[in-house]
Amino acid sequence: xxxxxxxxxxxxxxxxxxxxxxxxxxxxxxxxxxxxxxxxxxxxxxxxxxxxxxxxxxxxxxxxxxxxxxxxxxxxxxxxxxxxxxxxxxxxxxxxxxxxxxxxxxxxxxxxxxxxxxxxxxxxxxxxxxxxxxxxxxxxxxxxxxxxxxxxxxxxxxxxxxxxxxxxxxxxxxxxxxxxxxxxxxxxxxxxxxxxxxxxxxxxxxxxxxxxxxxxxxxxxxxxxxxxxxxxxxxxxxxxxxxxxxxxxxxxxxxxxxxxxxxxxxxxxxxxxxxxxxxxxxxxxxxxxxxxxxxxxxxxxxxxxxxxxxxxxxxxxxxxxxxxxxxxxxxxxxxxxxxxxxxxxxxxxxxxxxxxxxxxxxxxxxxxxxxxxxxxxxxxxxxxxxxxxxxxxxxxxxxxxxxxxxxxxxxxxxxxxxxxxxxxxxxxxxxxxxxxxxxxxxxxxxxxxxxxxxxxxxxx
Length: 460
Fold this sequence. Notes:
Shape: globular
Radius of gyration: 22 Å
Largest sheet: none
Structural class: mainly alpha
Number of helices: 17
Order of helices and strands: HHHHHHHHHHHHHHHHH
Distance between the termini: 43 Å
């Protein structure tokens, strides 16, 4: 259902909007968590390490797709907030054409260069074959991932966080069933897990298309909607690119920084890779409430930006920041005391050394969840305002800090140096984003006040 986020109590609206996002994000994680648990329990630690060794590469690739589609949908949300419904449809068609074209180019580049990339990542020879086939299958399905993420982003931009949730719930269950079928019945091994992932994503995309056609009249397109006059639509397309590509670059930089850490981690052997893989999956789940509230804030900010209501934006960001601080404290407490128990779900009870290593990582990183929580708030607020450059600069700061920790600290204190990479990066990025947001919103409010004074003088 389409919802207008420019009306009503901001905190209540964001809470109600974020709950389906949280549940949806949990099911989104099932795509990878099901892979890790099924692969680790049925195929062994080497297979788990193979998936884990290319996991950051998988996230890098998906981050680029998600960043691009989320960026394009910011314009959609702003047009909806301004009540420009023709602009909404035009935004969707422009976003679809741009994202599909860019994704196809990206897919070809990744497929051709993958052997070189895996070599640079120091993937151990004993797990190379499984890692290679897994990531190549995922790359082959990128156009499907792009299509789903674009649909989900557009639907959320229109204030509906429930529809993507329903699609993900069904597709996540399908992913688990297909993974079990391909691995246990067909004996496809690690590649079977990747096939299950791609097919379940395709099913979720088809569900979104069906639901949009049935329940979203605003998104019912005619043939002429897909015929673009580039002389006329050039500036509009450029607006999408100005937001979408920096956001995609921002996510790519984040993914690259994680990739650097994984490359260093790979040099410590399969046990460390398996522990790091399990710990990262658990951390992704632990931070989902904070992530979901940030995504809800982005849609809230985008619509209110279109409506020109900057005081409402500032109030919403303040309340969202307080909520995320509370969530960061709760999640840090849980990781401190029960992190080891969660790790055993992935690796079983026979690998206590891996459990200890993974729990040590969770113990260290959770201390800094406060800074991570604020990153989700200020990054999404800036993105909703259409200001993608500042988040990109913050991402560059994260990349530099992670590279420093991965290369400098790991040499001196071993794999524990890798564990400090994320926290150091979070501190740096949160300071850049907070400063950027407060400076930006102050400028917008000042411009609004000047316009009001000018209009009052003319009226007088």
